[in-house]
Amino acid sequence: MKSDVEVIGLDALEWDEQVAGIRLKTVVAADGSTWNRVTYRPGAVRDDVWCEKGHRGFVLEGAMSYEYQDGETFTISAGDGSIVSPGRAHRGHNVSDAQATFLMIDDAPEMEFGR
């Protein structure tokens, strides 16, 4: 394999259930970004914390709704992606009747969003 390619292997990792109904597999890449495969059971909501990290995501199945602390919301469904800028508190929940699965890449701490 070429030395300028990094394979992000999530499949072989164990699931980490952070809160009831929400689990993830996480790998920190060589560039400092964090790759997450995340599943939310139907109706599962991340209401224990507000996140201020920047994310890039793609929904593989189901639908996810995100709420900002100021009340604004957006929803993404299977086949859709999103880019969330860092610094604005947000959290997600599964708004579908099925499991929601998505890939979420957290920006490396030293990366400037959009550059």
Automatic annotation (TrEMBL):
- Can you say what this protein is called? Cupin domain-containing protein
Q: Where do the coiled-coil regions begin and end?
A: none
Organism for this UniProt entry: Microbacterium arthrosphaerae
Tell me where on the tree of life, at the top rank, the source sits: Bacteria
Name the Pfam families for this protein: Cupin_2 (PF07883)
Question: What residues does the Cupin type-2 domain cover?
Answer: 38-105
